[in-house]
Design goal:
Layout lengths: L1 H37 L3 E8 L2 E7 L1 H7 L3 H4 L4 H4 L8 H15 L3 E7 L2 E3 L4 E3 L2 E10 L5 E9 L1
Antiparallel strand pairs: 1-2, 1-7, 3-6, 4-5, 6-7
């Protein structure tokens, strides 16, 4: 009977300890997500799925300058939410830069890129020039997990 009581006590402590670690991890993730959301730069986090990059998350500033809600961006490719202007050719350069950062596992910069934003209400493209840096984020075995895309208008 004594062993059973001790086992329950140990299991209970292990459960409390595990829950404490989970809570701390969730708090830490919430902390970093909060920092990302409130950076004073326009940023998105992209993830490679089946050879294409999809938007995992967008920060507040990015949503503000593009006039698109983060929920509308999540899970979509850049060209889905930002159709390319037929008069410019920035999409190919963006995709190449993402691939270089992902494959080489080092930051890749585009000094000046014209990528116009489509204004659906007025059915026009707004002329935009960007400075872009794609920064790889790694998992534990040092595989590229995400690309942090920093965009300066």
């Amino acid at each position: 009977m004594r062993f059973f009581e001790l086992k329950n006590f140990t299991d209970y402590n292990l459960l409390l300890f595990s829950q404490n670690i989970i809570d701390k991890c969730e708090n830490l993730m919430s902390y970093y997500k909060n920092i990302f959301k409130n950076l004073p730069y326009s940023c998105i986090l992209l993830e490679k799925k089946k050879d294409v990059f999809v938007i995992k998350e967008a920060n507040t500033f990015y949503c503000k300058i593009t006039h698109i809600n983060g929920d509308e961006l999540r899970g979509k490719m850049i060209e889905e939410v930002f159709p390319e202007n037929p008069l410019s050719s920035g999409l190919k350069e963006i995709q190449e830069s993402l691939e270089i950062a992902y494959t080489n596992q080092e930051s890749h910069k585009i000094d000046v890129l014209r990528y116009d934003l489509y204004d659906g209400q007025n059915d026009i493209y707004k002329l935009k020039y960007w400075e872009i840096e794609n920064i790889p984020f790694f998992d534990k075995p040092k595989n590229t997990r995400y690309i942090f895309k920093l965009c300066v208008e």
